Amino acid sequence: MSVIQFGQKSLDFCRPFVMGILNVTPDSFSDGGRHNTFEQALRHAEQMVSDGAAFIDVGGESTRPGAAPVSLQEEMDRVLPVVEALNDRVDTIISVDTSSPEVMLEAARLGAGLINDVRALERPGALAAAAATGLPVCLMHMQGTPVDMQESPSYSALLDEVLSYLMGRTEAAMVAGINKQQIILDPGIGFGKTLEHNLSLLNQTQALCELGHEVLIGVSRKTMIGQVLNANVDERLYGTMGANAATYLKGARIFRVHDVKPHVQMLELMYRIESES
Ligand code: 7PM
């Protein structure tokens, strides 16, 4: 049975958990003012906690296809005050969505319990910084960079390439001093993938789980849901829930979502049904 320690809190992955997305990029709020952004972010996080989120994923860098890179100072100014305030106010695991070693170290000092890196600790210094925190990490697959990844995604053997990449990054993380059980894997839905690539990877979640790590899925409101349903971003909840339910049955255990309460309720039923003889 897989139990992972996230700082002070530990979770037993016999059951599913929801990770609530907390964007602290200025463009993710209607009014760009810093104070307002901060207060709004805290209120949003508190709501997600009361809705049952086990994790709050704090991200200050927009990884949207084609997004402009964010300076280190800007990312620190956005993310760290929120991590610090959340650590005082909520009893939930704070995950930090970052690729920057400096943010990893400082966020860990301020109480973060998980490092979530869409670049799988590839930035110089990231492996050493993540290892120095002693925290679990989520390693995600991406083809290309956020700027160019959706230009022409192409694979000769999709599943093999994703699994090989994640196995290689797992090995690098273990060499740096991160324990195998502290490594969570993520196929990176929408990160350098066509609709067919995304659907195929979701259908093959079991193969990723067979690497022996807990698996996180981030499909919430993404373009692929919109492509299947011909639905705008505000009409993608039911499709998101279907995709997450499908991968739960294939072994995924952490679901990174915008809409926490519907997922907590859906996954509770999935779990209770799967638990009964
Ligand atoms: C704008 C567009 C902002 C897209 C943010 C995004 C994942 C992640 C993201 C994921 C893990 C989003 C993405 N996606 N971390 N961070 N897995 N581990 O749609 O799929 O949320 S950012």
TrEMBL record:
Its EC number is 2.5.1.15. Its cofactor is Mg(2+). Residues 16-268 form the Pterin-binding domain. It comes from the Bacteria. SUPFAM superfamilies: Dihydropteroate synthetase-like. GO terms for biological process: folic acid biosynthetic process; tetrahydrofolate biosynthetic process. Keywords: Folate biosynthesis, Magnesium, Metal-binding, Transferase. Pathway: Cofactor biosynthesis; tetrahydrofolate biosynthesis; 7,8-dihydrofolate from 2-amino-4-hydroxy-6-hydroxymethyl-7,8-dihydropteridine diphosphate and 4-aminobenzoate: step 1/2. The keyword ATP-binding does not apply. Catalyzes the condensation of para-aminobenzoate (pABA) with 6-hydroxymethyl-7,8-dihydropterin diphosphate (DHPt-PP) to form 7,8-dihydropteroate (H2Pte), the immediate precursor of folate derivatives. This is Dihydropteroate synthase. It comes from Maribrevibacterium harenarium.
